[in-house]
Queue: 4 jobs
Job 1
Amino acid sequence: MRKTFSGVLYTYIDWLRSPRQFLFVAEIILILQFIIGPVADYALEEGLPLNIFEPFLLLFSESIFVVIIFFVFFLLVSDFPKILPAHVYIIPRIGRVKWFVGQLIFALMSAATYFGVLFLACALYVVNNAYFANGWSPAYQKMVYEANTLAQKQAFILLPSADLLYSSRPYDALPNTFALLMLMSVFFMLIICICTLKKRKFAGVIISMGLLGVGFALMNARSAFRWVFPLSNGILRDHFVRLITVYPILSSYIYFSALVVIGAVLCFRLVKRYSFSFSLED
């Protein structure tokens, strides 16, 4: 397994050093400036603190922002798994099973890094006016009650939802949000992996974007069919309407777990049959 982890670490460091990460940096700057910024400014103006978890939870409670954030993630991992001519010699040494396990580990590491950095960025942005607690902050509650008024302000493009306020607490909402995002990310990365192994690399990104797009349309239409798609299952807020549970969170965990297992099995079967040979032109 040492060779497997060495390969994963090399791939992970290579991914972190990719020029594409500048896109991630730009995304963080835009999120903090135009989405989290107005929320933080409102709390300061009102003299009210925020819960340090709230910016991240607010960001991932809005479907449009989740879609955009995942689009950027797809661009960052679009070449997953990276298959190079050197793999002709590497794969026989470590074995196809260990190589595939390494790819799954990389998928988890890259997704955890992506959403972990977003969480840290959101938390650090408000840290001077925030606290840790298992309850929604006075600023959050006031924004919920003044949502109609705040919606008229052009600077406000992210408004808190009463659905999370009444149905969940931060210490429950944060791990559930992070876990659902991780499962959704791994599922999409498996789609990209399957298409790459079928020598249709960018088809995986297009399919993943398509699934998010259809899910976004059905979610905004409040169609019951939205639960067939990953987006609604991956957004904690959509599981509730105030105190009413619209769709059990456990069902979403089962949904994603089943998709990940099916995707992993299909991927593994393709890996076993995949020819890691390259022409002289490659």
Job 2
Amino acid sequence: MKRDKGLTIKCFSPMKLLVISLILIAAFVAVTVVLTTIALTPGEAAEKAGSKECEEKALNEAKAMIPEAANLKYIKGDLGEAEGAASFNIEDNEGRVLGVISIDRATRQVVFFYDASKKGPSEKINISKESAKQIAESFLESKGVDLGTGNLTLRDAVLENKGRYGSAENGEANFQYLFTVYEMINGVKVSEGSYCSICISPEDGRVISYGIRLKTSHNKEKASSVSVGKEEAIKIAKSEVSKLADVPKTNPYIPDEEIALEYADFGNGVLTPVWYITLHYGEKDVTDMLGVIRSVYMAIDATSGKLLHAE
């Protein structure tokens, strides 16, 4: 469901860039850069110098991660300028696309990298989860992610099945370890807080991709306490939905994965815990998505139990 922009600000999503990048790589998009010599104002000259610095830093990182990397090709348009980051295709000397890299124009920090030069996910699981975790921790710390202090928490790895190479019947299953890092306070994720992700090959421990967005940590002292539990929040959500005229008066299906407790910063410096719950309704009681004709997204203040938003 679409969330109200005033209520929840989307976190940086490396996976979104990854999907876009894979589409571009599959299509082997050619980017032609036309250089023109013009008189630049001091501001334009500074911007050009900054862009060059960004590209040089991105290329150095690309070469460190993929030895065959030789050049970068800027991805034009909105796809190349997502959330203030300039994105580039990584190419070898023959123009073959090896991956994608994005760098924040303001901080000059690489925020996303994807290696397409080798087969990424693998059917061979030679690396244990614990070994992969050590690789992930060491790599992230080398990029300035401090997991020892502050509010950053590395979540346990998920061994993702990325589908099959080849036919559905005979293709090989392929896996990768996905680690995520969130800003957490009192065990609760902070919306719009720092976020990192890293994918490790279970075959050889290679870093397949990573995304890093570091922000100033929130003050724990300004985090309101959670007074409304999950079951109570669900009862409140059901009660509020019953007041909506266009929603069937039946028992809803509420998937666990669509119930989340997060801290939200509404701009007043105070972190408010919020229950986000999606309820799915049918003409009759439903226990899965079959028969669902209306879905309602709710946001409940986890301190007061007040309804913050419904759509």
Job 3
Amino acid sequence: MATVRDVSGNNPLGDTDHAIGGHYDLQATKFLGDQHPLILGAASVQSPVFSRQCRAIRLAPEGNCHYLVSDNPTAVKDATQFLASGAVEILTVRGGTDRIAVIQDAAEMDLVMITEDKS
């Protein structure tokens, strides 16, 4: 797991959002970075490597899918993490190393939008 930072702007004694030092504060994350649209299909599809500054991604599928994050992932239907259509998942990643792989859960082809943080 990547070393992550508290980007809340709060000091440890006055931390009102309960961020834990050394952990990623998703309340302060702005997902305005690079976007990686991937087409869901019957075969696993990988994103490009996330930018070096990226510490989290937002995953928003328009169809049911399975996903896996690592340096060379392969998503496998019914064996990797499931995400339903219309749901949103926030995942911590290792910038400059990790990428995500996705595969469809059903027969329809759809789109998954992956957006990097820009904190």
Job 4
Amino acid sequence: MVIQQRPILLAASTTLSTGGSALFDAAKLQRQERAHCVIHEIVFMIDGIPIAGSASTSLPSIGGVVRANIDVGSFPLTRGFTPLWSLATCPQEGNIRAADTVPADPEIAFSKSTAGADKIRNQYRWLLPRPLFVPGGTAFDVALQWVNDVATVTYSNLTVWVGIRGYALQPGTPIPSKISVPFATAFVVNEEGLGLVSDALRLVNPFPVPLNVQRFIGRIQTTKPGWITEANSMFNYDEAALSLRLADSQGYDLIRVGNGGSTPWGLAFDQNRRAWTSPRILDSHEWYSATVGPLTNPTTSKPMLSMVGYREEETANA
């Protein structure tokens, strides 16, 4: 007899107001059965209706100002509140959008309801570096924060969904002695008291065990009159013509400033995925230092650089 996997989707939603925070109902993100499960992706979906008179037809992407702090049991999956789009590479598939008049962005859906109200939907999918084993009865604790950026007040409230996808294991499956736990951390320019250079507390391995870095994700948030979205890192020169230097705590340059004085941001991150696959093991408390700039429009552009990977944790510490 073939033993089949049983797919599962744990889902919850909450309302988020500008400048506010919210918690998802942990009971909805916890399997009540005693059987263990394996999780392979976490998906966030944001629905919003612009305030009347705002520039709603601009197809905003607000994954930079909506941020999540994620824990499973006693294990943190993020370093504090991390921008949603800094968790996820951008998928290369197109998106279906009503009355599409511009090339589709796979993370944005835009439509008009029958009542004529503009609606926006953003979706960000974190495909975990390795499947995450979750013991039966363990809950995901997911908190949200909406950074009070001036441009995002064009939305009165947002409805945010989280979906945790995986499969249930057969009853009696033993708990492994170690599990692979994903982790993401981000450096946001001009936040947390930092300017254009990250410090040893941002792109860091904060754990006592090695961190297997899988990739870096580069996003540039741009603010326009009445709306906010992502700058295209290859085609929007004014906002993305900035240099990037990346070095580790041992002094090794991953990205060195070139002979012309700059290494363009767009050379590091694939245009479709916004990501750079760069496997590396960081020992405990090793870090990367990023230097970004100069910004062409420092008041409207905000680069965000994240590091995504996983570490091996003993389940006895869960």
